[in-house]
Write a structure and sequence with these properties.
single chain, mainly beta, 8 strands, disordered N terminus
Length: about 100
């Protein structure tokens, strides 16, 4: 029985802990995946670079801008307002994608 007393608080804490992101975009093969993402206002998107080359996540309207993300680096941004947000990789401008916030 004593083991249950110690496991129960840890389980409750794990279930109550918030996730790092509401949505994830992977960067691989010089592409964002998914290229079009739809989320609700107040959600956070995390981008993770799986390429061996650095990439960035830069909104075309200047709302957010990551540093150069090396392999396995991540960048997160919380979208508070509805709208359509286009972004690019400033290092490889042919990489384009969109987040739609409802």
């Amino acid at each position: 029985m004593p083991k249950i007393k110690f496991l129960l608080p840890a389980l409750c804490l794990a279930l109550a802990s918030p996730a790092f992101a509401d949505a994830t975009v992977t960067i691989k093969n010089f592409d964002y995946s998914p290229m079009m993402l739809s989320i609700s206002a107040g959600e956070t998107v995390t981008w993770k670079n799986l390429d061996g080359e650095p990439h960035t996540v830069v909104s075309t309207d200047g709302l957010f801008r990551s540093q150069a993300l090396d392999q396995n680096d991540s960048f997160a941004f919380k979208f508070d307002k509805p709208g359509t947000y286009k972004y690019i990789c400033s290092i490889h401008p042919k990489m384009v994608a969109t987040v739609t916030v409802k």
